[in-house]
Amino acid sequence: MQSSRECFHFEGDDISRYDLKAGKDRDDSEMKRKLLTTAVKVIPELFPTLSPVMLSVSKTVTGKPFELFVFSDASPKAYCMGTSAEEATVLISSGLIERFGPQEMAFVLGHELGHALFSHNSYPTPDESDDPIETLKILALWRAREITADRTGLAATGDTGAAFRAMMKLASGLSDKFIRFDVTAFLDQVKDLEKAGPSPSFFLSTHPFITARIRALLWFQMSEPWYKIRRIRGNPTFTKEQLERKIKKEIL
Question: What's the Cα-to-Cα distance from 91 to each of 73, 88, 160, 216, rounded to whole Å?
Fold first, then answer.
């Protein structure tokens, strides 16, 4: 993964592109203390099923161990602390564990580790700026970083279907019992969105719409970078340049 890092990095995920500077230093020590008292640290003795997934993802994504905590929340949620692979700490909710299979969990953990690997937590936050134009730039940067993190999640699972299932579960909050994972049918929402017309709220969002993220991953697994990393023979549909142009148009 480390040697393939640039292949996974989305071109729009570049703080210098927006003429922005790193945000304020964040002290996570108090949050870490809180985790130790209110959450449960994942270790093999306590989480025999989750621990192997964690180990596999760390080897694939960063080559370095990371700490993982489970906190009580019925909704599927995940967060990452740290601005480098060496100091990454991932938090996942109990609701996420109960809904996600091992490969889907690998996507989520890989996505969160991607934020640390690419120093996303050093980016300025929207509430740090009083300038409306600068705030819009920060929001665009945050949307772009999600594309990089999604690609890292895909690398962690190696299973495109698992990545799509994880995204649909995050969007719906449902488990396998209640949803049929038909990506084509789900993406029909894009047609409805296009009929509804552009929404100003998109430019005020920190995340691309889930339909846009799934389309971006679909294009990525049809691209030159993915073929190179997975050593797939044949001609990809998109070059790196074509891929990035399509995604920029979709989310920026």
Answer: 11, 10, 23, 25
